[in-house]
Fold:
Amino acid sequence: MLEGNRLPAGWGVSILDRTDHIVARWPDHDRYVGSQANAALRASAEAPEGTVRSVNVAGVPVWGAYARLPGWGWRVAVGVPEAVMDAPMRRSALVLGMVGLLAVAASIAAAVLFGRRLARPIRALGRAAAEIGATPAPARTGIRELDQVASSLAASAERLRLAQDAGQVGIWELDAAAGRAVASASQARIYGLPASAAPHGFGWDAWVACLHPDDRDRAAATLRDAIATGGSHDDHFRIRRADTGEQRWIRASGRSSAGRFVAVNIDVTAARAAADALAASAAEFRAIFENSVVGKVLAEAATLRFIRANRGFCQIVGREEAELAGGFTLLDLIHPDDRAANAAGFREALEEGRPWRVETRLLHCDGSLRWVIASIALLPGVAGQAMRAVAAVQDITDRRRAEERQALLAREVDHRAKNALAVVQAALRLTPKDDAPAFARAIEGRVNALARAQTLLAEGGWTGTQLRLLVEGELAGFIGPVEAEWPARVTLEGPVLQISAEASQPLAMALHELATNATKHGALSAPGGHVAVTWAAEARDGVLLLDWVETGGPPVAGPPGRLGFGSRVLEATLRQLGGTIQAEWHPEGLACRLRAPLSRFVADWQPRIGIGLAGRPG
Structure:
């Protein structure tokens, strides 16, 4: 365009933008376009028109005239070399003045036409830039620089649009002074609005209408305050999409500056749901961890140092969680005799990446031992965090004790059965056999005595039986069950004593022999006869005394001429347990005193002042 307006040789014309950079020039357009105008023109930027004397961009002293284009702020400057102007000026200043003015006028007209041509794509670029997220597509101008700007702007806008769609990010700008809003297409899609809502169809009222009723007042007030104060804005709120009514969570961030507020809205519904699911999962884990009846421990895998421990584990070892997490390791609580083997086993399992399960002993804070089954497994690694292990610890102390009691009981039953068989064998061997019916009755009675003792021991868990029950059981075999007439035939008196399992069967046999003798020859053989059985524990001497006194039976002439089988059984039985028997045959009846060590006869007896046996069941 400038090139078509031929100027005299040496003259130059330039079009300057608002920043005094050359947009177009003739001659040498490609060489000088984009460069800055000379200092004289820049100094006169405020005047609408005028002349200057300066050095042009080519370094040539010139006389110049400039004029500002109306409505644009651009200027057109014409430069004439001083050498060209000086000679003719002396001869025809008027002619040259006229030519100069005509040239300026022509240049101005050409610049106006060229400016309009430039204005169309620039306006298009401006409109596209104003519409957030839009992709500008102005027509090609033929001006390389403008076409490059348009192409770059279009590529940048397309990248921005793709990023907004991928991240579900919307951009929203509010101009408080102008009372208008500009929204990106992605903002409209997030809120379920049609594409036509972008860029100018999504204002304040449309935004408020989309807010969830429960969040509307708060979210609107929060944003209004941020705009009014010119501060930053960060909020979470719910919306209902305009098209489906679906509830979505939005995170809004923005900043207000110079009356304009720019905000970014991000749809965080999926992230919120994932966070809620994670929080629910964590809460569920905590509930399971804390409330499990099985002890649970979270520890560092390398050191087994406690990180967390639930109430179940704290109860097993008798320590608080804070105390355990203050420096204890799981190995510190294992019995010293088990510690090395457990440490080696866990390290081996750790290297092989498999769980470690062991039955071991833990130390309670009171010094007692707790048997446990411990299962330790590695947790999946987390970046930046030391590897952790989780342990489930089940207290099996009661089970172990029950097993030990069962094993002890089995041994005790075996021992008692062998003793009973030995006693039966002795009875068979020693009972006189000349009278078969008498032999059978004697054997049957002694076997029944053993059976009654066995029953009482079984009911007591093979730990022993009460002396009163033992005496009642043996006498009941002769005078029948304990009934109302018992006080007339039998008197029983003495403290509550628990006879040991070891002494129960021998003592039952001794009582059986005394009752047998009383039934055959003594107080229980006559209707008015009476038997008094009394006992006492002499704790100071460690002796059990049991007196058997018969009265009201047939008169007794004196001791028998020879000892029968029953008497020999009595003596042998008591001698076996370290005791003695002293018998006195008074005319009114037999009186016997059994004397035996408490340590052999009374269960769990310990020598101390006082009987110390109160509290046992009576």
About this structure: Residues 82-130 form the longest helix (49 residues). DSSP finds 18 helices and 22 strands in the chain. The two ends are 129 Å apart (CA to CA).
